[in-house]
TrEMBL record:
The gene is rapA. It comes from the Bacteria. It comes from Halioglobus japonicus. Residues 449-618 form the Helicase C-terminal domain. This is RNA polymerase-associated protein RapA. Its EC number is 3.6.4.-.
Length: 920
């Protein structure tokens, strides 16, 4: 190669130098100036690591004057290249290579390959694998649902899929206690964020649930919410603090009597607002409370709204109507009319029962076709009648998989130190509270009972819950230091990291703690269903708190009966409370979703008996039991089975579970993550089956790999292990580690140019093959979800010397096992000789890919119009008989159809990777 002063060359040894210009040529040496870094480099002519920069027609070039041109012609004059091109004003200009901007970046596969910048064949294979996996995930019907650290439960997956795919969903989630409303909301939020339907989310909660939500969203869905309280807001003095974060958790109480704060929250603008415990909002026909009015204002200004509440019947029709009114005020505007409709819905529910028995009733609505099969008629009933599109409710009676509860009572004599104390009721229920030291541990019979019980239960895991942190800390210290029992404490004084460590120590099956001693927060936010023994060291005064405590173990996925152990001091308020819960509410054996209402009904009578138990207590037990049984019967008889059917269609849920299981099966994801770690320089260490420890190394390609911290990160691909080991990251195809790493591959040049040799029988040595990978590039707003119909669609072509396409004959995976690495000097020598051949083969490959693209685009638009058009037609028909179909939904569907068609039409090809293969 002849070097001339003024020519532009690039260093394939150091791409960061930018574009060099030859400034001196000697018989054996050559000197180049690199203006981008202000350096000169001198090389031996015989082995200079340099490649002549030659742009071609269609390339974009920049001049030192900042003018960008699209090259239309290249000519050589006196050894220098002259480029002719058009600028953004469509004017034609000619520039010498001397005028090119030194800050050149060679990023396209063809530029990098022909200028000697190529990667390992393993990186090329990783790039191909990345495009293939992204395409598969974009096509998956379970997209947005596979990334959560949850069991695959039918009712939760169905609701999340049904609601999460809607534009601006506005629904009421009203599952019974223990069925996972928080998980359903998290799955919906996760799907809305992942698919671009939402980006800003505000969650309003009672203060007691703040920590639970923070933990659940982070641990289960990898959603990093910011927790806003008065202290934090007072430190954020610039601008609107609610605009500083995309995902915000805050207490609804924080906005009471604070109009300024309410206005800031309203002005921030949210795509989705979530309100937990929504039945606490105050509303009546005569007057709405301040909390209700604030949520109503948010509901009016935000497209999406999720309300989470207890089973609606237990709080009355008026309260139920008030929640629905927030979701759709034009649909639910009159309480009396709603009550009339509710009676009609109950008739429809009975009608569905009749249809499922195989009988077609005489009073079938006129809009239903009597000639259809009963199963089809039930589907039409679900679609067309009732509040099924805005209300989802599953009950424990309808959902299988709950364990039995078994109560064990342990009456213990009250010690003298407690008996003679004249104290308030709170301290009689928790008599250890007045002691500033831990002396009570020596005489309280519950302590010795606890030690002996734990020893008897060994090696079973046991969860211990008590009301106060001081009690929990003292007990755990006693068990650990004086009784020699492996234990850990879990209470509000710990940081989230410390709580994680305590929970992980308890979850460890081999070397972990036998018992976890929790304060009341142990009944919030964590599920320990790997244990089935629960010790209630004391009892809360609120039956809902007791239900929450039991609910830590009595959950979906529990494999054993829940053994509930209750020690109590005889002839004290503790015994009275145990009796009321046991013989009045029967809460130790049967879940109670109406606990607060029952407590309110008998609060004064119960308080009197706790202060001084009398003969009237037996009457209280009888009245409570009758009221509780009557309430349970009303709830069970009053269940709207039409809504329950619409809240979980098992055939849909079965298909989703099958899809998720298929994506998780085998070791495809594990192998892909290992390839990512290999490419980016992340160390891997085997931990256990389907579990790795990832650590940053000194040779990392980038300064950071997502979710791998300096101390190392333990990851598992096993869903069951992830559910019991919260200290491990649960890696799925939708985990941010995988998602961000895929983006790092996709958005950079890693692996987009490679070279190798291969031995093929019957093929002459020196034969050139060019392997090209194209994808469809469709630039469209994420919220349109165009990739559902037009995913990346990787197109691999393998062109031989005669221009024949061989991809089908030589699969990519087979090629990877045969290809061999080429040493750098040899590779550079090959590249210099095959410029024109590569350009020619590229033209052939691109022409074939372009021909395929036209069919792909035609099929994509046809599929889009078919799917979205069918959904639009269905909703338009339903709206004629079911007013809960909002016009906004229909408008959005019409808009999506037209916009998707426009973007699909303008989609084009993108060359993702090139590999030059030479036979030997």
């Amino acid at each position: 190669m002849e070097y001339l002063i003024g020519q532009r060359w690039v260093s394939h040894a150091d791409a960061q130098l930018g574009l060099g210009v030859v400034v001196e040529v000697e018989p054996r040496r050559i000197t180049l100036s690199f203006p981008a870094v202000g350096e000169e480099r001198t090389y031996a002519i015989d082995n200079a690591p340099l490649t002549r920069l030659r742009f071609k027609e269609g390339d974009h070039i920049n001049t030192v004057e900042g003018v960008e041109l699209i090259v239309t012609d290249v000519a050589e004059q006196h050894g220098l290249l002259m480029y002719t091109g058009t600028d953004h004003h469509e004017e034609q200009l000619s520039v010498s290579e001397l005028e090119l901007d030194a800050f050149v970046q060679l990023t396209t596969p063809q530029q990098r390959l022909l200028n000697g910048h190529f990667d390992k064949n393993g990186d090329f294979a990783l790039r191909v694998a990345t495009m293939t996996h992204v395409d598969r995930l974009q096509r998956s019907p379970a997209r947005g649902l596979m990334g959560s650290r949850t069991s695959l439960l039918h009712h939760q997956l169905y609701i999340a899929n049904e609601v999460g795919q809607r534009h601006a969903p506005r629904v009421l989630l009203a599952d019974e206690v223990g069925l996972g409303k928080t998980i359903e909301a998290g799955m919906i939020i996760h799907q809305q964020l992942l698919t671009g339907r939402a980006s800003r989310v505000l969650v309003l909660l009672p203060p007691s649930l703040m920590h639970q939500w923070l933990v659940e969203m982070l641990r289960r869905f990898n959603l990093h919410f910011a927790l806003f309280d008065i202290d934090r807001l007072s430190q954020m003095t610039d601008g609107n603090p609610f605009e500083a974060e995309q995902l915000v958790l805050c207490s609804l109480e924080m906005f009471e009597d604070n109009d300024h704060l309410q206005q800031l929250a309203l002005a921030a603008g949210w795509d989705l607002v979530v309100v937990d415990e929504a039945h606490h909002l105050h509303w009546s026909e005569e007057q709405a409370g301040e909390d209700y009015r604030f949520v109503e204002a948010l509901a009016q200004s935000s497209p999406g709204l999720l309300l989470l509440t207890a089973t609606p019947e237990q709080i009355g029709q008026a309260s139920h109507f008030a929640r629905l009114r927030l979701l759709d005020p034009s649909r639910f505007h009159d309480l009396q009319a709603f009550q009339e409709q509710e009676r009609e819905y109950r008739q429809m529910s009975d009608m569905a029962d009749t249809l499922e028995s195989g009988t077609i009733p005489d009073n079938l609505p006129a809009d239903l076709d009597r000639n259809l099969a009963p199963t089809e008629l039930v589907k039409q009933l679900l679609d067309r009648h009732g509040t099924g599109r805005v209300l989802f409710r599953n009950t424990r009676a309808a959902v299988e998989g709950f364990p039995q509860r078994v109560l064990h009572r342990y009456p213990l004599p009250a010690p003298e130190q407690y008996v003679h104390a004249q104290v308030e009721l709170e301290e009689r229920l928790h008599p250890e509270l007045p002691y500033y030291d831990e002396s009570w541990l020596d005489f309280d019979p519950r302590v010795e009972w606890l030690v002996q019980t734990l020893k008897k239960l060994r090696p079973e895991k046991v969860l211990v819950i008590c009301a106060h942190a001081t009690t929990a800390v003292a007990l755990e210290h006693y068990l650990h230091m004086r009784a020699g029992i492996r234990s850990s404490a879990f209470y509000e004084g710990l940081s989230i990291i410390e709580r994680d460590r305590a929970a992980a120590y308890f979850a460890d099956e081999v070397n972990g703690a036998q018992t976890l001693v929790c304060s009341e927060i142990g009944s919030e936010g964590r599920n320990f269903q790997f244990a089935h023994h629960l010790i209630l060291f004391d009892l809360p005064a609120n039956p809902d708190l007791l239900e929450q405590r039991i609910g830590r173990l009595d959950r979906m996925g529990q494999q054993h009966d829940v053994e509930i152990h209750v020690p109590y001091l005889q002839d004290t308020p503790q015994e009275t409370l145990v009796d009321w819960y046991d013989r009045g509410l029967d809460v130790f054996r049967d879940s109670c979703s109406a606990g607060t209402m029952i407590l309110e009904t008998f609060r004064e009578r119960l308080k009197d008996q706790l202060d001084q138990r009398t003969e009237a207590f037996d009457e209280l037990l009888v009245d409570t039991a009758e009221f509780t049984n009557r309430t349970r019967e009303e709830l069970r008889d009053g269940r709207d089975r039409l809504i329950e059917r619409n809240s979980c269609r098992r055939d849909v849920a079965d298909a989703l579970i099958e899809e998720i299981n298929a994506l998780e099966a085998g070791d495809t994801l594990e192998n892909y993550l290992e390839a990512l770690c290999e490419a980016f320089g992340v160390d891997q260490e085997f931990h256990s089956e389907h579990t790795l420890v990832l650590r940053p190394s000194e040779h990392m390609l980038t300064g950071h790999f997502p979710y791998v911290n300096d101390e190392g990160t333990t990851v598992t691909f096993d869903r069951e292990k992830a559910l019991s080991r919260e200290d491990m990251e649960f890696i799925t195809w939708e985990h941010p580690m995988i998602h961000e790493a895929m983006d790092m591959v996709h958005s950079t040049e890693l692996g987009n140019a490679a070279i190798g040799t291969i031995k093929l029988k019957g093929v002459p040595a020196g034969t050139m093959l060019l392997e090209a990978l194209y994808t469809v590039n469709c630039v469209a707003p994420k919220a349109l979800q165009v990739e559902r119909f037009l995913p990346l669609t990787p197109m691999r072509l393998l062109v031989d010397a005669r221009g024949k396409e061989l991809a089908a004959l030589v699969p990519h995976e087979r090629l990877n096992t045969l290809i061999e690495r080429v040493k750098k000097p040899t590779a550079l020598a090959i590249i210099k000789q095959v410029h024109r051949e590569v350009d020619a083969k590229m033209s052939l490959a691109t022409a074939q890919a372009e021909a395929r693209l036209q069919d792909i685009l035609k099929d994509a638009e046809s599929q889009m119009r078919s799917q979205l058009g069918a959904e639009l037609a269905r909703l338009e028909a339903l709206r004629e008989v079911n007013p809960s179909i909002r016009e906004e939904e229909l408008d959005n569907l019409r808009y999506r159809i037209e916009e998707c068609a426009v973007h699909i039409t303008h989609a084009n090809l993108q060359l993702q990777a090139l590999r030059l293969i030479i036979t030997t």
